[in-house]
Structures are given as C-alpha cells and as structure tokens.
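Justification of computing resources. Each target in the renewal requires a structure prediction run like the one illustrated here; the chain below, 61 residues long, is used simply to show the kind of job we budget for.
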Amino acid sequence: MTTTPRWLKSSHSDHGGQCVEVALNLPGTVPVRDSKAGDGGPVLTFSTPAFAAFLGAVRTP
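Resulting structure tokens:
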C-alpha cells in the first residue's frame, strides 16, 4: 500500500498562485493542500466518497 501522497495540480490552474493540489493515490482518502505552501503547509483530508460528492456538486451547472 502506498502511504506517500503523489501530489497533482489541475491542468486548468492559471498559474496565478490560487491553486490546490490533490493526491489521488491513497486508498479511501483524498488529501488536499495549497500549492503555495507545499510540504510545509496544512493538509485537509477527505474520504473518497466525500471528495467525489464535492466534485459532482461543483461540476453541476
């Protein structure tokens, strides 16, 4: 089992410094962090179903 997050930034990021990164390689959990803070900043952790519900809500027109 992988325990080290592999951080990803959206290809839709505008490089204006307002980006978040997610790690999708950890079973059952999705950590999210501010890309500016990097390894030293706080991480919010969501369950996979909660993160999927969030994405569904923001994608709905």
